[in-house]
TrEMBL record:
Region (Disordered): 1-38
Protein name: Serpin domain-containing protein
GO molecular function term, any single one: serine-type endopeptidase inhibitor activity
Organism of derivation: Microthlaspi erraticum
Domain Serpin: 61-403
PANTHER family: GENOME ASSEMBLY, CHROMOSOME: A09, SERINE PROTEASE INHIBITOR, SERPIN
InterPro entries, per database record: Serpin_CS, Serpin_dom, Serpin_fam, Serpin_sf, Serpin_sf_1, Serpin_sf_2
Gene Ontology CC: extracellular space
Family note: Belongs to the serpin family.
Highest rank taxon of the organism: Eukaryota
Length: 405
């Protein structure tokens, strides 16, 4: 892909992410005070808020596919729509284009999804926001209060003009500190300079244990089929236990639930989903169907456990990074840097992501599986998601073309 076409597609990806925020209808909803470290009980979602969250989750899938098209058409990819959305929501608040509904959606996600559940045996989750502003610029105190109270963001005035490189190093250290050291050196030299006025950041970390862990003694090396037809040998996790598998026309969906906390008052549930096309070269067509079907994720959730025959999931560990640039009105240049990583093994999954956004001038019905054993052999390219099922929030999304890389 030539450089100019790639830049246009990356800009389109940023437009999609930003557009998904600004298109939400304005509604009067009192902002909730967020809990940073505790899971708290909340009432059921209103119909309007639930629909708004569905729109955002559709946009998350659309963003994933646009980044795939521009950056990783036939290669491994992982990103965090939730992290990107958090950073862009703060930018929207700065621009004055965030509606009450948008802030209500973020508040719901922060309260239900981002609260750490490790103390009660659930997933370890950390979501941290930060805003860095050039110290010579005037500070809007009401906006500062919004960042600190709604987004729980640290608000820091820094010297971009004469100490840009020091600030860049500080931002990279912040990213590493809040992702258990998994995200390092996200901002390259030159990404922050004397013209930078503001940087919005989000760091997201997730570590969860499978509800039903795999036995290491069953893990065996088998062949994974690359798109070019060549096989590579990788370790596959295996199981003979019943699994949540949905069988659809041309593909299957597997849901692997994570262990829940004992006193999780939100009734939230985290799961990892695997979308496996029947054809070894069928992932492109599956992605097209997913993005063209409104509410695809919610309408393709396996509800029942089924007997399995040959059941294999590859272990994998990799990271992915991309950047996007877009010019706004008033000769303002917005630059987004995003990096994510993921690892799954017999015990569970660990994933992390950081997003920095800088500003400078310049469905088909569910088809019950047949009463027989179902094979789910992920030995060819597939898509995966880590998702909170109550809100539908997509924390991480990606695809696997080669587990060895």
């Amino acid at each position: 892909m030539d450089s100019e076409n790639r830049k246009q597609k990356l800009s389109s990806a940023l437009d999609t992410a930003d557009g998904s925020l600004s298109k939400m209808d304005r509604r009067n909803k009192k902002k909730q005070k967020l809990s940073k470290s505790q899971v708290i009980a909340i009432p059921s979602l209103s119909k309007e808020l639930r629909e708004a969250m569905k729109k955002q989750n559709d946009a998350a899938l659309d963003l994933t596919c646009k980044v795939i098209a521009s950056e990783a058409r036939h290669s491994n990819l992982v990103l965090s729509p939730a992290s990107i959305s958090a950073a862009l929501t703060m930018m929207a608040a700065e621009k004055g284009s965030s509606s009450d509904e948008l802030l209500a959606v973020y508040s719901e996600i922060a309260t239900v999804v981002f609260a750490d559940g490790s103390a009660s045996g659930g997933p370890k989750i950390s979501a941290v926001n930060g805003v860095w502003v050039e110290q010579s610029l005037p500070v809007d105190q009401s906006l500062k209060a919004l960042f600190e109270n709604v987004f729980k963001a640290t608000f820091t005035q820094v010297d971009f003009i004469s100490k840009a490189e020091e600030v860049r190093i500080e931002l990279n250290e912040w990213a590493s500190d809040h992702t258990n050291g998994l995200i390092k050196d996200l901002l390259p030299p030159g990404s922050v300079d004397s013209r930078t006025e503001k940087v919005y950041g989000n760091a997201l970390y997730f570590k969860g244990a499978w509800k039903d862990q795999f036995k290491k003694s069953l893990t065996k090396e088998k062949e994974f089929h690359l798109l070019n037809g060549k096989p590579v040998r990788v370790p596959f996790m295996r199981s003979y236990e019943r699994q949540y598998i949905g069988v659809y026309d041309g593909f299957k969906v597997l849901a692997l639930p994570y262990r829940q906390g004992r006193d999780d008052g939100t009734n939230r549930k985290f799961s990892m989903y695997f979308y496996l096309p029947d054809k070894k070269d069928g992932l492109d067509n599956l992605l097209e169907e997913m993005t063209s079907t409104h509410g695809f994720l919610d309408s393709h959730i396996p509800r029942d456990k089924v007997l399995v025959g040959d059941f294999r999931i590859p272990k994998f560990k990799f990271s992915f990074m991309f950047e996007a640039k877009r010019a706004l009105e008033g000769e303002v240049l917005v630059e987004m840097y995003h990096k994510a990583c993921v690892e799954i093994d017999e015990e569970g999954a660990e994933a992390a992501a950081v997003t920095f956004v800088g500003m400078r001038p310049s469905c088909p019905r569910f088809m019950p599986p047949p009463p027989k054993r179902i094979d789910f052999v992920a030995d060819h390219p597939f898509l995966f998601l880590i998702r909170e099922d109550k809100t539908g929030t997509v924390l991480f999304a990606g695809q696997i073309y080669d587990p060895c890389r």
